[in-house]
Amino acid sequence: MKHPSRVLASLLLAATASMVASLALAQSSTQATTRVVIEPFDANASVATLQLGLPTALQRALNEIPNVYVPAIGDVALVMQKAQQAGKSQQATMRALFSPDVVIQGTVSGSGSGMSVSLTVDRAGSPQTLTARAPDGTPATLARAAARTLATALDPNLGATVLGRIDSAAAQTPSLPSLGPVALAASRLPGAKVADLKTASQLDPNSAWVKAEYARLLALSGNAKTALPVAQAAAKAQPDDGEVQVVLGVVEQAAGDNKAATAAFAKAVQLNPSDAVALTGMASLESDAAKAKQDLQAAIEAYPRMLDAYLQLASLQDTPQHALQTLRNGENALPESVALRRAIVQNVINAGDDKGALAYLQQAVQDPMAVSAGLYSLARLLPADVTDGALALVRQGEKKYPDATILKAAEGELLVHKGDYAGAEGVLSPLHASLPKDAAIANLLTVAQARQGEIQAAQRTFESVSGSGDSAHGDLARIFLAAGRAEAALGLLRPIVAKGTQDANVLAVYGLALARVGKLSEGETELNKALAIQPNLALAKRGLSFLQQQRQLTGGTDVTFSADAGTAFQQGMYALEVQDYQTAVEAFKRARSLDDNGLSAFFEGYALQLTGDPRSAVADYQAALKAFPDSDIVLNDLGYAHLQLGRFDLALEQLGKAVKANPKNAQAHLNLGLTYYGLQRYSDAVSEFDTAVKLDPNLQPSVAKVRQDAQQKASGQ
Question: Three-state SS for 231?
Fold first, then answer.
């Protein structure tokens, strides 16, 4: 095993104490942010478009005021809708999640011959009623009048420059035919279409707001290069419009120009230091982690529901515990966010608490503000050791949301993880029939069929969405290899390789498939070809390492398996190669239950050790040692497992045998040195460290610190 750093932590008693990261929110400037929430307005049928259009126009205009932040209207609407569905007070829920200083409501009336809006401005429970009118019946005129009225109500002392920017932003409000799709896009509600925004840009060619939203949707649809000149034109037309600058930053970043994106975000923040989206965008491009944290904390202060800020801030924390604390803080403001819940579940899983992740989801779905089909579907992330609980949770969700295809797909995926491939096919086949172009469902069904040996059916399913070209067959071959169907993978890849492919991934999978059917030398050749093309290809490097281990263990002789055991063994090896260690453990267990041998026992122990369970690995290594009594590979890994468990006496015995069996095994010398270190035999430790580095100079960086410590302690003895 090549993980001495895990043991160093327990052997080196001196540890650096880490400071607890502060999660207190920083202010974006010396003046605190005024958080403003604008709710969707009421409107009569003749001006229904203004129900969303006018508050969205006002949101953009009021965000021109320094240290004022108004979030997207769609987020407010979604929270209020969710509260209603959960049987909760809409107002109380909205106030709890947004923490607003000011809440604005409105009612629009009139027609094309004249419109007016009655506004209620509630600051700290003291409502104020205001009115704005548009005698000409145009949305822009009404937006300008309402924006000026609201701005002076929020701050009577605003200067002419800020008032001018507010007026200019409101004046970008498009005509009634364009306002609907533009407001939908700007509200961040789902359903906005690029084609509709293109039409709006033709109807209102002089509106920077329309141009900006069109550019943003183009970038989100993957057309950043097309979006860039549109966003730049909007910024040129309205250079001091902070909302336009934010969109320009988003588009520049999508186009890969991070320097220009940073400049756009910085200008938006200069105009309004509380612009949460601009602050979050700047942080995503910031190389200084401390500055990025400051920007993210300021974004959250301005907008407590800024999802991306929480996710970024969690990724910058020094410890997993602080990252989880950050995410849980976000959960208070974003209870319904599946993305945030996903990050929490993944964080808990990464900490090794699989049961805790399951318990978290079981608790989360009890919250009426959080529960959704998407939340239930997160059970598909849970590791194999809690699959039964995950399945039960998904099926509970299916009863609540019987039409949710996401839950059927999750059930199928979990059944695949459980090894119930027939059950998975039973769930996924009708789902694939109803959604024939859904690639994710088709791929899951392909896996279930391949695992059962239904090669032709799997190929038909896969090709129904991916086609039958060389690239598709390369991907399908990888599925076959993961399913333990190496012969089927070879059948797909031989014609591609015969044509002289230079695709390193294809050659790597081909080499692994050859090794799986016992052609070790040919497999090694193809893996080396893959590495010659792409030297850092992880799949090929790991595959070559395992192939060489297998050859050293068996002395090059073939180890025979029954058909089903061989399939399970192949599945385990592929799982190891892609670092899916828990799946590898389960596969090797199946192989051993069908046809036990030393090779499967060794790799089961290896996989267990990589999951962090050296205690269970010991028994497997001991079983492997009966089959390969003189193997320095088995002796080294068994000794390392004892070392991880703190049994220095047993580690010393096995590692001593390992270096005797193969004096050139650098890893065994390193582990023996660590054992001597643990036994306080520092001179012997230094000697073994030096031997290890002499045999393998690549070990020098990992051994330098402990060798220096051992040398100092040896000198003092």
Answer: helix
